[in-house]
Amino acid sequence: VLDFMAVVGRLKKVKRTGWVRSGVAGAESVSDHMYRMAMMGFAMGSSEGVDGGKCIKMALVHDLAESIVGDLVVDGDKKDNITREDKLKLERKAIDDITAGLGGGAGGGKKKLW
Predict the structure, then answer these.
(1) CA-CA distances (angstroms) from residue 60 to 3, 5, 76, 79?
(2) Average pLDDT of 83-102?
(3) Which backbone phi and psi does 81 adopt, to 5 degrees?
(4) Cα–Cα distance, 34 to 55 (Å, whole number)
(5) How far apart are alpha carbons 5 and 34 in whole angstroms?
(6) What are phi and psi of 29, to 5 degrees?
(7) d(CA 78, CA 110)
(8) C-alpha distances out from residue 88 to 50, 70, 74, 109, Å
């Protein structure tokens, strides 16, 4: 769990690439983004036909791989020199490594959410 938390902690230092390349002052980190997405899920309710709990979990998992591979951009005019398929391979490997460290059902559950 401590290794997992170290991975999560790295996301505070990974700035959102699109914001940085667009010259946005004070660009948010990936961690900032994940928190805001989780809060969006928290704000949603069953009355909207949304599983808010699952949305929160998905928001907290969806960019975990970026702690290892960085925030790679494959669309737009300021993209990285990587294909969508290669980005997915790198991120899948990172998620495999991150969730394997949690072991058992805990790791598998997070991987399914990704």
Answers:
(1) 16, 12, 25, 24
(2) 93
(3) -85, 70
(4) 11
(5) 15
(6) -85, 165
(7) 31
(8) 27, 12, 10, 19
Residue 74, CA distances (Å) to 31, 58, 71, 78, 87 in order: 20, 21, 10, 8, 8
Digit-coded pLDDT (tens) for 68-87: 999 999 998 889 999 999 99
Reduce the secondary structure of 27-92 to three states and give it as a string: CCEHHHHHHHHHHHHHHCCHHHCCCHHHHHHHHHHCCCCHHHHCCCCCCCCCCCCCCHHHHHHHHH
Q: Are 74 and 90 in contact (CB under 8 A)?
A: no
Q: pTM (2 decimals)?
A: 0.85
CA distance 80 to 69: 12
* Torsion sign across C-alpha atoms 33, 37, 39, 40: positive
